[in-house]
Amino acid sequence: MNPQIGNGVTLFFEDLGPRDGTPVILIHGHPFNHSMWAPQTAALTTAGYRVITPDLRGYGESPVLPGKTLLADFADDLVTLLDHLDVEQAVVGGVSMGGQIAMEMRLGHPGRVRALVLSDTSAPPETEDGKIFRLGLAERLLAEGMKPYTDEVIDKMLAPYNVTGLPEAAARVAAMMYATDPEGAAAALRGRAERPDYAPVLAGLPAEVPCLIVVGRDDVYTPVAEAESLHALVPHSVLAVVERAGHLPGVEQPEAFNRALLEFLAGI
């Protein structure tokens, strides 16, 4: 569906599973789209959950708004989508940039977050070097398109052994990246260059808001140590390390990822 949800934003999304199931919204990372969650959507809807998977503005089938998209803008879009769907509160999960958007939703709209699922993401603010890198990458994508960048980083998005060992998964990831509009990706990169510190959000997370932290054992972008630091911020959180996976364990090892997710959801 592509509803106009307000603020001049139109979002494509899927809303699957029973209407009376616990709502779970899953937020993709950069530079992907909602289809990366297909294995999770199948498992969760079968288990009776309502699963909402949007394409963030500028990604997938959602139109591009050029310029700069802050993580707060993405979060506001998703809260407006929940309003559109009459969903008062949801389990909010995300991978990488999507995890940061999930934390931003908890920061800006705390009452809408029933629980957090944070996959392969980080809480600290952007560094000065990181800002320079993201702003430079934004210009590079506009100049070169997505293919050179995709080919350069595919063996960091997935563990290198999965690029060759799981060719269908690797092809899915590369296809999502190739298809992303460089202008949408650039807008998000400019926004992420201004990323705030989400550590206080996690440190202040009450026990009644459960938190699952997932990481691929061989993630080079957000290593296990990064996940352990998130886990330390939230004393009541659950940490799941997915073996034989890199930055996208939900794609690389969906059965292990889904097992951890379903076990977590069953306990909230």
Provide a descriptive summary of the structure in words.
By secondary structure, this protein is an alpha/beta fold. It has twelve helices and nine strands. It has helices spanning 38-46, 71-84, 97-108, 128-144, 147-157, 160-165, 167-179, 182-192, 199-203, 224-233, 249-252, 254-266; strands spanning 4-6, 9-10, 13-16, 23-27, 50-54, 90-95, 113-119, 211-216, 238-242. The strands form two sheets. It has a seven-stranded mixed β-sheet, with helices on both faces. A two-stranded antiparallel sheet has the order 1-2. Helix 1 (38-46) links the parallel strand 4 (23-27) and strand 5 (50-54). Helix 1 (38-46) crosses helix 12 and helix 4 runs antiparallel to helix 8 (182-192). The chain starts with a strand and ends with a helix. The mean pLDDT is 96.
Uncertain regions spanning at least 5 consecutive residues: none
* Rg result: 17 Å
Main sheet record: 7 strands, mixed
Mean pLDDT: 96
**Numbering strands along the chain, what is their spatial order in the largest sheet?**
3-5-4-6-7-8-9
What is the N-to-C order of secondary-structure elements (H for helix, E for strand)? EEEEHEHEHEHHHHHHEHEHH
Name the structural class: alpha/beta
Number of beta strands: 9
| Ends distance | 29 Å
Shape: globular
Please state roughly what percent of the residues sit in beta strands, choosing from under 5%, 5-15%, 15-25%, 25-35%, 35-45% or over 45%: 15-25%
